[in-house]
Amino acid sequence: MVDSRILQTQAALAEAVLDLAARTPIAKLGVAELTRRAGINRATFYDHYSSPGELLATVLGEDLERMRDDYLRGRREGGSPQEVLRDGIDATVRHVEERRDIYYRALVEAPDAELISMLTSSFEQSCLVILAETVDPPLPRAKARIIARFVGAGLVGGVTAGLQDPGLDRAALVETLSESFPRWWY
């Protein structure tokens, strides 16, 4: 069982980094400002994370992991593959919209390699799990990794393009991203 103080520290850090990253590029966010906002000391911060970027990537990555679990649950429960894919992409786009200031800053305004890498990796890992569970016979490992990396980077590119086009609504972005998947995906 996790100590409640650790959970409180993690919650305070998550709230602080999300708030501050919405206003400041993560590369310019200092540990002192972050720890002051979270009400903890620097040593405690460094017990858990090496940088504000790592903390932000962890917090956003946890949200993305929950969405991947929901997507996989939908696939396992026999939902229409096209609808499950669309729902998964919609959840991802909603997540980006809810954190628009952070993602716009990190993907468009001042591209942040750590966050871009985390997002690509998260999508890639989701793809690997999905491919392992849904493709029969299983793909060779190298082929699955190439496909997963391609799809992950493509999703990051699509989300970035969506952020750059203020006239594009969520439904249009979700539809476009869904249509971009290869037909054999579902």
TrEMBL record:
Pfam families: TetR_N
Source organism, top-level taxon: Bacteria
InterPro entries: Homeodomain-like_sf, HTH-type_Tx_Regulator, HTH_TetR
Matches recorded under PROSITE patterns: HTH_TETR_2
UniProt keywords, alphabetically: DNA-binding
Keyword Chloroplast: no
GO molecular function: DNA binding
DNA-binding region: 30-49
Protein name: HTH tetR-type domain-containing protein
Higher taxonomy: Bacteria, Bacillati, Actinomycetota, Actinomycetes, Micrococcales
